Amino acid sequence: MNIKIRVKKTIGVLFIIIGLLILITPFTPGSWLIFVGLEFLGVRFWLLDKIKSKL
By percentage, how much of the chain surpasses pLDDT 70? Predict the structure, then answer.
């Protein structure tokens, strides 16, 4: 696997985990990190492709 892709996926998963931890702790303004992590993983593009294929 390309090192750039691996780093991007690692950062994405890390942001999701931190965002989930922030949700259950008093630091709620940081919960947006979940969405940043999903963006790093490319989930938005994957979901858009799925929706387009069903139309």
Answer: 80
Q: CA-to-CA distance for 2 and 9, rounded, in angstroms?
A: 11
Q: Which of 48, 53, 43 is nearest to 12 (CA)?
A: 43
d(CA 34, CA 12): 9
CA dihedral 6, 9, 15, 20 (to 10 degrees): -130
Radius of gyration of the chain (CA): 13
Which amino acid is present at 6?
Answer: R
- pTM exceeds cut of 0.70: no
